[in-house]
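FAQ: What does a ligand-bound record look like?

Like this one, built around FE2/S2 (inorganic) cluster:
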Amino acid sequence: MPKVTILPDGKTVEVPAGTTLLAASQRSGALHGSACGGVCACSSCHVWVQQGFDSLSEASDRELDILERAFGVKPNSRLGCQARVGSADVSFEITPESLQTWVDEHPEERRQIEAGALPAGVPEELGSRLRKLVRR
Ligand code: FES
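The answer part, i.e. the structure of the complex:
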């Protein structure tokens, strides 16, 4: 099975081909926002693919339309809920926009971060970024 590496969490997970990047994140426990629940309606699952871009499923016109709404779109941008893993290993970075969505969608964890703690399993390297997000 292909290995998926998820930044900035630094988590890795093996998933069957056909798994979306968002589902891989959720399986790994990475902090990946998805305001619309993965139905290609919000762009909050935006990622920058670092490795394996060409092995992913082809982007649909709908995905490209929604992706235009995202912040910081780059040539290696995809929507995590639409891009599916092929047979190759993949690595991608969850964008700050998506991380912000995750924080906004998890009020209990947000309160923890505001109080100076980190949710279970969140690496300290990610802590400073999360603390900045909750101050917004
Ligand atoms: S979760 Fe909304 S577009 Fe992917």
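Follow-up question: can I read anything off the structure? Yes, for example: The helical segments are 21-28, 61-67, 96-105, 107-114, 124-134.
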